[in-house]
Design brief:
- The protein is mainly beta and 380 residues long.
- The protein contains one helix and 28 strands.
Length: 380
């Protein structure tokens, strides 16, 4: 009888140990999503992958949801819902999904983005609104999020006006991205066509946008501001410029919303003489490093951030393994960077050196049609 009891207890402890080890292993593997441009013989929508935080190994790659050109993605702060910009030539759209337990996506609904070419979406910190930038329409909109994660018709809308010096790319406004600050007090919209980062007062409860003073951060003529990243500690904002291949550093006033110019740096090596446009920008979670992508040079530019001034010093350029790195993302732990190469239909994993910020190839890669956005949901 004692032997039987001992065996039973041993089995119980073994099962408990296996369960604990499985939990640890599962915790080391996190999901991420890839938004794409869809084609009949290529991508069909949004794909779900996994990243092993110990090894950098990729897994998954399953179709999470079919959608038409879900080019850019954003996730609700709760981690329960995902939103995509549907980049269409006519009237763009924003689509809401619920994230199922297995990581697949359940369609909730879709609303008009109020403009052509919806190219970027953002969820405010309170999880009450989806903001969308319409490249073709040259405008931005705010759409309310309901309790079930679905979205309502736009409650806020602003039409940009104006142009700039580039005769082919800046004849009219082209809103390329939209963000809230850390307190949801202001909305910032990068407009490639007017060389402005427009600043609006934002009411998260009502989902409305109002003029701010100052009205915008101003960039050099022909810059073509594309995306923006705030420093996690506050005080600074970084704008990557698609047309001049530069990054502008701004001092950020949290009280007034103002962006005051502090520095401009190049994203390319001095000896590069080819054609290039920049794309994505990201500040490392530690606040010590900044990364920007080059399409043409096909690289990630790595900078160290001065802790006292917020200014940038170039560290390195790392080839992304493919062509046209449209987007990249850093996992929440800051250990890995995943680059998405639109023209070669692939993603590559790089390990981040915590001391220098430099990137090292891991050999981990996966195929996915025309990847445009890499998104890590918040960790539970």
């Amino acid at each position: 009888m004692l032997l039987a009891l001992f065996v039973t207890m041993l089995r119980f402890l073994t099962a408990l140990l296996v369960a604990s080890l499985s939990s640890v292993l599962m915790a080391a593997e996190i999901p991420f999503y890839v938004g794409t441009y869809t084609k009949p013989d290529g991508s069909k929508g949004i794909y779900r992958f996994t990243l092993d935080l110990e090894s950098g190994r990729l897994g998954g790659g399953d179709l999470a949801a079919e959608a038409k050109n879900p080019s850019f993605l954003a996730v609700h702060p709760s981690g329960e819902f995902l939103y995509s910009a549907n980049e269409l030539d006519g009237s763009g759209g924003v689509t809401a999904f619920a994230i199922n337990d297995d990581g697949s996506l359940k369609l909730l609904n879709q609303q008009s983005s109020k403009g052509a070419g919806a190219c970027h979406v953002w969820v405010d910190g309170a999880g009450k609104n989806v903001l969308v930038a319409n490249y073709g329409g040259g405008n931005i909109a705010a759409l309310p999020i309901h309790e079930d994660g679905s979205i309502g018709e736009a409650t806020g809308f602003v039409q940009h006006t104006g142009s700039s010096v580039n005769p082919t790319r800046q004849k009219e406004p082209h809103a390329h991205s939209v963000y809230t600050d850390g307190d949801d007090r202001f909305v910032y919209a990068c407009d490639l066509g007017t060389d402005r980062v427009y600043i609006y007062k934002f009411d998260s409860e009502k989902g409305t946008l109002a003029p701010n003073e100052p009205a915008a951060g101003i960039l050099a003529p022909g810059s073509g501001p594309r995306h923006l990243a705030f420093h996690p500690a506050g005080g600074y904002a970084y704008v990557i410029n698609e047309l001049l291949n530069t990054i502008d550093v701004f001092k950020h006033d949290a009280d007034t919303g103002a962006l005051d110019p502090a520095q401009t740096v190049d994203t390319l090596p001095d000896d590069f003489d080819g054609t290039n446009t920049t794309a994505e920008i990201f500040v490392h979670p530690s606040g010590r490093f900044l990364y920007g992508s080059n399409r043409g040079h096909d690289s990630i530019a790595v900078y160290v951030i001065n802790e006292q001034t917020g200014k940038l010093n170039l560290v390195d350029h790392t080839h992304t393994g493919g062509k046209a790195p449209r987007n990249f993302a850093i996992d929440p732990t800051g250990m890995w960077l995943i680059a998405a190469n639109q023209q070669t239909n692939d993603i590559f994993v790089f390990k981040i050196d915590p001391a220098t910020g430099k990137l090292t190839e891991t050999g981990q890669t996966a195929k996915v049609g025309a990847p445009v956005c890499v998104l890590f949901p918040p960790r539970g």
